[in-house]
Amino acid sequence: MPKFKGTVSAEFIARRDKKAGGFNAGIRGADAEFIEHHQVLIDPFQSLYEGYEYDTFHSTLGRIDYKQYSKAGIKLGEYTQRQIREGMVQYIGIWKWLPNNHWEELHEGKVVQYEILDYVDAKEALKQLNDDGRFPY
Predict the structure, then answer these.
(1) DSSP labels, 117-136
(2) What does the DSSP assignment read for 9-68?
């Protein structure tokens, strides 16, 4: 799948710092939003969604919620599960940091790399959830 490289902007950091307190994973969780922000910059088919229900709108795929890859499976929290059931999320965009899916705190000017692994039908993913709210990938 495609690999991408992007430079973290001052605008992203300012936005991240405002939102970090609202994430269970704090800065780490807010940094993960870099992927959708970068995708809308480089993919003319995607636009950023400013609400919480999903991340981007893709003119072909529809509403995408990006989730980070994990060997344990892709985690879909209760809120995301509800958005899928209600039809708000149509695809899960699975991605990982490069190299080795290792996160380091982002800062302005930092060049980061990531890979989009797949876009999975959200309703199919929901059918495969284990007791921990993860689906295998």
Answers:
(1) EEEEEHHHHHHT--TTSEE-
(2) -HHHHHHHHHHGGGSTTHHHHHHTTHHHHHHHHH-TTEEE--SSS-SEEETTTEEEEEEE
pLDDT digits (tens, 9 = 90+) for 63-95: 999 999 999 999 999 999 999 999 999 999 999
> Which H or E element spans position 97?
strand 91-98
For 27, the domain range is: 3-135
CB atoms within 10 A of CB 94: 21
**Total domains present in the chain:** 1
Which residue carries 């797949």 as its tokens?
118
pLDDT in tens, 4-30: 999 999 999 998 888 777 666 678 888
Cα distance between residue 56 and residue 13, in whole Å:
19
Question: Is the pTM here over 0.70, yes or no?
Answer: yes
